[in-house]
Design a protein that fits this description.
17% strand, Arc Repressor Mutant, subunit A, 7 strands, 8 helices, 5-stranded parallel sheet, alpha/beta, Rossmann fold, 2 domains, two-stranded antiparallel ribbon, two-component regulatory system
Length: 181
């Protein structure tokens, strides 16, 4: 396998609705040589991409006005060689797979520090991750399966509940909670 080409232009779009985190990460990435653009919403992020698609992006998955994957998709369409990383506090396999299919090169759980973000942006995306020391619990596996079906149903709660043979309200409660350990 060959290493992915790292863009020489170091423009970086950061999209996150957590203003203090966004500001800290922007400062940290500027010290690493990036020219940083910040956005606090999907609409703002997509607008930046349409104006001038950056060579790098770090996008939060859940934003107040929608799904950060929309920014990833717009970036990949505008600049296919761009390297994008998805950040989220609601990590699950289904959204990680979707993010990669839409053009993301990595998927990091929050809170991620600047070194981890930088490593994901400029690191070799071809290398394999190490096996986890602690595998997922049965509750986590169940939660991951529900999330995968939810993503496959285009985040339609009623359709997901029907396919899982589960009451819609029960499913809504599960989706509102954080992932089990």
């Amino acid at each position: 396998m060959t290493n992915a080409v790292i863009p020489t232009e170091k423009t970086l779009l950061l999209v996150d609705d957590d203003k203090p985190f966004l500001t800290r990460l922007a400062r940290a990435m500027e010290t690493r040589g990036f020219e940083v653009l910040m956005a606090e919403s999907v609409a703002e992020g997509v607008a930046h991409v349409k104006r001038s698609a950056p060579s790098f992006a770090v996008v939060d998955l859940r934003l107040a006005d929608g799904n950060g994957l929309d920014v990833i998709e717009a970036l990949h369409q505008a600049r296919p060689e761009a390297r994008a990383v998805v950040l989220t506090g609601y990590g699950n396999i289904a959204t990680a797979v979707t993010a990669v299919k839409l053009g993301a090169i990595d998927y990091l759980a929050k809170p991620a520090d600047a070194d981890a973000v930088y490593g994901a942006l400029v690191g070799d995306s071809e290398t394999r991750a190490a096996l986890p020391d602690n595998p997922m619990s049965a509750d986590r596996v169940r939660w991951e399966h529900i999330q995968r079906v939810y993503e496959l149903c285009n985040r339609n709660v009623s359709e997901t509940a029907r396919r899982l043979n589960m009451h819609r309200r029960t499913l809504q409660r599960i989706l509102a909670k954080r992932a089990p350990k």
